[in-house]
Amino acid sequence: MRAARIGRQWSDHVQSGRLAGIIGCLALVLLALPALGDLQREIDRAIAEASLEGMSIGVSVVDLRTGRRLAEVRAYEPLIPASNMKLLTSAAALMTLGEGFLFETRFVLAGDRLVVVGSGDPGLGDPALLSALPEPMDVEKLLDFIAETIVQAGPGAIREVVIDDRVFERPSVHESWPRDQLQHYYCAEVGGLNFHLNIVNVFARPTSLNQPARVAIEPMASGVEIDNTTRTVATQTSAGRPHTSALAVLRDDAGNRLRVSGAISRSIAVPTAVRDGAMLFGEMLAERLDQKGLTIGQAHQLPRGAVRRAADGERFEGRTLLFIKTPLPEVLRRCNTDSYNLHADALFKRLGHDLTREPGSWALGSAAVRTVLIDTIGPGSLDGLRIADGSGMSRHNRVSPATLSALLAHMNLHGGHSTRVLYRESLARSGQGTLRNNFLSERELRHDVLAKTGFLNGVRSISGYIAPKGGGEPVVAFSILMNNFKPTDSLRSRELRNELVRLIDREAATLRTGSLVTEPSTP
Q1: What digits encode the pLDDT tens for the residues 119-169?
Q2: CB neighbours of 111 closer than 8 A, spacing ≥ 6?
Q3: pLDDT digit string (tens) for 244-263?
């Protein structure tokens, strides 16, 4: 029953009327197509031969032309999806916000206050987006540009800089994220105002032998304190082997004090998540405005001391001096191709805000994604579904491979052409993004794989499309979720994932051959 409920809404729309015109070719069809179940048997065989004791694996493979399920292994069992959760989030964002949606950060002069109004934009100061501009810039140049624009607008003095991040609720870290990993870039806070991925890059450069390395951060922020206990070492060990630089950054339990240690033989950098990136951005902006000669705050007050957060219920009216926008397609690409958790969770919270006009939250984001799933692939998609966050960082998420493959099929069949293409192009393609390392080479595949991978301890996943190389409509949608493998089986689980993708790729080639044989000619 669950299979029927999940698949019915999208499979009813598959175009199959052309078969009436080619009944006479039935014998050719039977010769061209493999016996039903060949892929199923091959997948079952590969899983059995992998001998991954204790592992739970779910597989769902769908023919996009007919809606026929080509293979299923525990397809309706909810499993931890890891970053495959981003497929749900990005699809819901595209269908709810629309492909023309723009995140917008506004800088408003309200009397003698400068108010920075956030929209939850994860792309503000994103280094990859800055480098892709027609005139590329780095984060320091962006800060200078913002400050210079404000100064040129002519305010005589600014009494305070107000950070208005109320578009989202302020608990910015999900309660189920691993507490020992919150300083890592992939666990960066998700706020109503985000800047530079809510991280700083910690750089260490060697100096004189046995002396501390030179440590710096980007962007420069006086609110980040550095405790430097690094040591410069020779480029080679006493045995003549290359000395490997090792830089460790530990963020204190409170504030933004970073303890930096390690043996440094060459320049090295570590991205590190900061606390309260919104306020840190306000402090950096106030300092740069001060450096450009604009009076900030009260007499004898440091510029960063003039920064505060907007209070609940506080209203501001004024003149917009500058706005910075990030298009949704850029956020989708960073979410799916590059697998940035911040971008996924900002979309997730923004969905909750747009659904209710209340501050976006983890709970409202979950409700928004559930609503989209019901509207698109039916209530059967909710069987066993658990949505904790939008990125898949939480181990509390649960989704079935059948739900993922049904959603992928829906996104390939519905909406305007540009929407379908935008969703597909947000995914990593063979040899790109997260499909670059530890994945099949293009020589091993007959098609392009457009997919989202996922990885947590004991969890490996991949879901997406098999499509003709160089472009063309996808042939197959698939989802593979693997849970509970042992750390010692990580390599074997990766090899099994790749083998299953090879088998699905081979099946897609057979399907395409069959469709070429049976395709009616055009008069």
Answers
A1: 999 999 999 999 999 999 999 999 999 999 999 998 889 999 999 999 999
A2: 318
A3: 889 999 999 889 999 999 99
Phi and psi at residue 219, in whole multiples of 5°? -75, 160
Q: β-pairing, 307-309 with 160-164? A: parallel
Q: HSE of 99 in the Cβ direction (CA atoms, 13 Å)?
A: 12
Closest listed residue to residue 472, CA positions, set 154, 10, 64, 15: 64
- How many CB atoms neighbour CB 339 within 10 A? 22
In this structure, the number of other CB atoms found within 10 A of the CB of residue 518 comes to 16
pTM of the full structure: 0.90
pLDDT at 280 over 60: yes
Task: Report helix, strand and coil shares of the chain as percent, to nearest 5.
Answer: 40, 25, 35
Question: Is pLDDT larger for residue 200 or for residue 22?
Answer: 200
End-to-end CA distance of the chain: 42
- Cα–Cα nearest to 371, from 102, 176, 93, 170: 93
| Concatenated DSSP letters of 329-389 | HHHHHHHHTS--HHHHHHHHHHHHHHHHSSPB-HHHHHHHHHHHHHHHH-GGGGTT-B-S-
Mean pLDDT (the chain, rounded):
90
User: Which of 496, 508, 429 shows the shortest CA–CA distance to 59?
Assistant: 496
Confidence tier at 515 by pLDDT (50, 70, 90): low
Q: What domains lie within the chain, and their CATH numbers?
A: 2-98+330-518 (3.40.710.10), 102-327 (no CATH)
